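Re: [ENG-882] Designed sequences occasionally contain unexpected residues at chain ends

Forwarding the minimal case from QA. Structure tokens:
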């Protein structure tokens, strides 16, 4: 039997130098399309209808004041602002430019200030491209594969498919990157268990020529997929892993990060220390100034978004010492009991909160995608060993003894062997 190092939850917030903060900034709470699986508009929560459609100037300046105070008081060394919606490009370009100028001026003392936007790309034009280049905006585009897949769920308000217009935007962004105007875009795709993942991957990578992408597993709450979706993810993730391993020059974040960790190796305590340093608080700031945690869990924990916290009257300290949010932060760092003896625990970290809800409104369950993720990590670990990663290094990442993976220079463990060891 392997030794299982204890897992100790971290403090609610690191009030120290070297900390980081990510903010999902709802600059608009309306959208030009109507994706049927959207957690924000179609997951049983109509709070957006009670909020201003646009983040007004006064509200934005209060947000900047909130962030500037946080930067000063907590010595933040990294702040990431994600312009979000709805569709963030529904704001006027000149207003967007003013917001970027204001953020860069007021938060310029931050060692690393990152501005990003997540868009459906349907409104991309030369004006927007110039702004993305001028302010060094990281641009992410959402698409779900070829038109026959994308247009089932990602439709406009008249039910028409959006694929052709999205591809037009992607091509414009790629052309701007080729001219040196802006950084390359990234693509975000939600995995649908009913779709052929090879067809989706080949469309994005080969047909669209995208080199930076990430895949998301469907949220559990409000899912449009049936109860068999989690089981269906096992062969899907296995196939996706094989596609990526055939050409790892593609920057597929979902697979690249764990694969690089296996290649680099490490000890369990080092891995957990790394996790604690890199897992930054994520806040959502709405168009009315209200503050909540990561917007993705709103359908599962709506009570965390009615705390009375607002950028006009609250500080980051107020947010991170609010009892409900302190408990939430502890949950995000804590492993479910079912995961404590699993060697993959410091790879998946218990899974995304949106994938591990319990009937009582908590997040103490293991990930709905546990089996699929374990299988995926086994495939990646075996591939890393086959590419020269030391057995003792991989064992250190997993919290295993090296002899549980085999003896060098014996043949590298297969994914099936790794799964057996992990069970």
């Amino acid at each position: 039997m392997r030794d299982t190092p204890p897992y100790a939850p971290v403090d609610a917030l690191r009030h120290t130098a070297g900390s980081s903060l990510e903010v999902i900034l709802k600059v608009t709470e309306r959208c030009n399309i109507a994706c049927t699986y959207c957690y924000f508009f179609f997951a049983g929560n109509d709070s957006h209808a009670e909020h201003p459609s646009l983040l007004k100037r006064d509200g934005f300046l209060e947000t900047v004041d909130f962030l500037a105070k946080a930067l000063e008081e907590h010595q933040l060394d990294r702040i990431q602002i994600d312009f979000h919606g709805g569709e963030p490009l529904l704001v006027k370009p000149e207003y967007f430019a003013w917001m970027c100028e204001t953020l860069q001026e007021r938060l310029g003392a931050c060692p690393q200030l990152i501005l990003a936007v997540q868009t459906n790309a349907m409104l991309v034009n030369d004006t927007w491209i110039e702004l993305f280049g001028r302010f060094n905006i990281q641009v992410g585009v959402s698409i779900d594969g070829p038109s026959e897949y994308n247009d089932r769920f990602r439709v406009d308000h008249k039910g028409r498919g959006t694929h052709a217009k999205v591809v037009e935007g992607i091509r414009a962004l790629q052309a701007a990157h080729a001219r040196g105007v802006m950084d390359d875009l990234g693509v975000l795709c939600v995995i649908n268990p009913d779709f052929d993942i090879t067809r989706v991957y080949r469309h994005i990578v080969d047909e669209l020529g995208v080199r930076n992408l990430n895949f998301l597993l469907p949220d559990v709450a409000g899912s449009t997929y049936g109860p068999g979706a989690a089981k269906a993810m096992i062969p899907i993730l296995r196939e996706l892993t094989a596609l990526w391993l055939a050409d790892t020059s593609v920057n597929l974040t979902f697979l690249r990060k764990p694969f690089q960790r296996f290649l680099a190796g490490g000890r369990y305590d080092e891995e957990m220390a790394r996790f604690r340093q890199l897992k930054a608080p994520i806040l959502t700031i709405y168009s009315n100034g209200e503050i909540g945690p990561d917007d993705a869990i709103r359908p599962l924990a709506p009570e965390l978004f009615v705390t009375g916290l607002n950028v006009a009257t609250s500080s980051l300290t107020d947010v991170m010492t609010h009892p409900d949010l302190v408990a939430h932060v502890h949950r995000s760092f804590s492993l479910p009991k079912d995961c404590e003896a699993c060697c993959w625990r410091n790879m998946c970290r218990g899974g995304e909160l949106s994938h591990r809800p319990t009937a009582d409104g908590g997040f103490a369950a293991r990930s709905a995608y546990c089996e699929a993720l374990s299988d995926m990590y086994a495939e990646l670990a075996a591939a890393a060993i086959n590419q020269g990663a030391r057995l003792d290094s991989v064992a250190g990442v997993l919290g295993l003894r090296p002899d549980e993976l085999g003896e060098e220079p014996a043949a590298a463990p297969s994914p099936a062997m790794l799964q057996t060891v992990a069970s």
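QA comment: On inspection the terminal residues look reasonable. The two ends are 10 Å apart (CA to CA). Proposing we downgrade this to a documentation issue.
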